[in-house]
Backbone:
């Protein structure tokens, strides 16, 4: 939102929520337009927000991955996008746009708790505030659109869970590093800082997923392609901490229903608990060493 557009909207008496909805409607079937809208949000209500711009790096990287896979394409046409991914992306954009509008003096109140998280980030930009805002919107969208998630195929539903646990893990690196890293916790704020390039390593799925939607192979096929850091991260570091990670995240994000997405150390978002075998650690020397060197924190 530029300075001039802020004054024009403000003069119309439009609420921040209505303004945000108008922005979303204008790009709903324009993937490149969605990316441009997110880019503008980080410039703030008057086109200049130097303290906020560095946080755009992680958000833009993740969204470009969605664009490459075709997830945000219109639902009409020969190669439609994903209704679920479009809805999740839209929630992040809407919450961010509304917070920008509120900071530009358009009237409220905020339409959701997650908008308040974004407003807090606008007022005091730091890594923890950014994660709380971004992941708050992500989790809210996950919980709101379970019906759309259930309609996706097996492989897509599996990687929805992978994405969720990874974004929660990176948040904890900054805000509660003892959970993800144990005795290595001093490294957490550096490894998880969304302004730095390291965050892309944690959220990178392009090495095992083709740039296509929907995925056409079975889950086991993609798991067989995962090697190196991805396998070490998912099975060596995140899997032993899933229950604790989700409990902490539910409290941090004020989203108690997030606990319905995990059960006894297995991920259950749009995924049957009876098929929890996919979350069990494969036989791997690096994974075993990670379990030994960085065991999860014991809770008394």
Residues:
């Amino acid at each position: 939102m530029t300075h001039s557009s802020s004054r024009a909207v403000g003069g119309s008496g439009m609420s921040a929520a209505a303004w945000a909805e108008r922005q979303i409607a204008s790009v709903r079937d324009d993937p490149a337009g969605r990316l441009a809208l997110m880019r503008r949000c980080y410039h703030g209500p008057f086109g200049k927000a130097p303290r906020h711009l560095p946080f755009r790096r992680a958000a833009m990287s993740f969204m470009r991955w969605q664009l490459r896979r075709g997830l945000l394409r219109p639902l009409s046409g020969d190669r439609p996008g994903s209704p679920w991914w479009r809805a999740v992306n839209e929630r992040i954009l809407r919450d961010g746009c509304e917070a920008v509008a509120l900071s530009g003096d358009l009237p409220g109140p905020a339409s959701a708790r997650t908008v308040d998280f974004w407003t807090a980030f606008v007022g005091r930009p730091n890594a923890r505030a950014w994660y709380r805002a971004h992941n708050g919107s992500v989790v809210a969208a996950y919980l709101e659109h379970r019906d759309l998630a259930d309609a996706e195929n097996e492989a897509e539903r599996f990687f929805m869970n992978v994405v969720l646990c990874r974004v929660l893990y990176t948040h904890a690196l900054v805000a509660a590093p003892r959970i993800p890293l144990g005795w290595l916790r001093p490294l957490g704020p550096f490894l998880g800082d969304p302004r730095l390039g390291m965050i892309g390593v944690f959220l990178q799925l392009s090495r095992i997923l083709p740039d296509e939607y929907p995925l056409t192979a079975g889950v086991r096929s993609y798991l067989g392609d995962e090697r190196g850091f991805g396998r070490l991260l998912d099975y060596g570091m995140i899997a032993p901490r899933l229950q604790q990670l989700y409990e902490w995240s539910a409290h941090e994000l004020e989203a108690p229903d997030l606990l319905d997405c995990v059960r006894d150390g297995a991920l259950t978002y749009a995924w049957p608990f009876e098929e929890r075998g996919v979350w069990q650690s494969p036989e791997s020397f690096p994974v075993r060493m990670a379990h030994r060197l960085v065991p999860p924190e014991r809770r008394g």
Notes: The chain has two domains: 1-151, 153-300.
